[in-house]
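Dear U.,

For the methods section draft, I wanted the exact inputs and outputs in one place so we can describe them consistently. I've listed the two proteins in the order they'll appear in the manuscript figures. Please don't edit the token lines directly; just add comments below if something needs changing.

First protein:
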Amino acid sequence: MENKLIAFIEDTKRSVDDKTWFTFDRLTFETGKATLKPESQEQLQNIAEILKAYPKVTLKLGGYADNMGDPQSNLKLSQQRAETVMADLVKLGVEAGRLKAEGYGQEHPVADNSTEEDRAKNRWIELRATSKSGPLLKRPSPLWCDQTSFSDELAPSIASKSEQDQPSVFRLSSVIRHRLY
């Protein structure tokens, strides 16, 4: 998701709209709660570093839930989860004024909710840019992230190596610098 967000931010031909969302693919919450599991921190740190690198970008975070339970409770839970992600990004150094959170409850399911696997698909957080401008203004601090998060376009020097030679992680800041320098 991070590579797609960076590409969108840097693409001067694509304007901000209310239809372009980026889905977090490594955020997980405790069941029935707005508490993030520890494995979610890596992706939150990545997004915080991207936002620090692009200080004019603002985001809206959307929270979603499956259809188990009361619709009003699901709406409240999805709002709390979006707010939790927002609060964690603020703790990581992103200005609160650059973020908004909204819960959508069980609206917009991506699966039919008939199995636990499908219900899990319907519990997600996504974001969209509400404003963007300009190139990288601040070099991000080093940050480790999973290489599978980035496309060949964003990391050609890494992608050109054979699979055996590729490190299991690389620095997000290196990828951003590679594109700009």
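Second protein (the one for the lower panel):
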Amino acid sequence: MPISRWITFGFRQHDSKHLAEVEDPDWLVPTLVNSWVNFDSTLTARYRKNALGQVQLGGAVRSGLASSTIFTLPLGFRPSIISGFAAPMANSGGTGFVGQIDVNANGTVTYVNTGAAPNFVHLAPVNFRADGA
């Protein structure tokens, strides 16, 4: 087999042909709470877990309450400990800043009040390993 077909991950080798056959799972749509709404119809809040047990969030939200839960992930999609993530945000005037999103072991995805009221909270930087995965 030509060496170009092999990819090394850590100490294991995997055939790239078989890796390419693994498709990302469909996105799931959470129920937003605490006045959070989807930013628009193209950036809807969503989540999924890939074959390696990595949970990915996507989309963007706006108009929620400061320091409040945005939505709650179901069992199987939660981290074992609280995980904090820097996330791009913007205020109503369009000024961008970096804020914080926490994903708690109980599944709550929370906007952490950083002193600025966001009109845009991007969820895509959030990526973590699910507990038990």
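Candidate sentences for the figure legend, describing the second protein: The chain is about 5% helix and 40% strand. The chain has one domain: 23-129.

Thanks,
Y.
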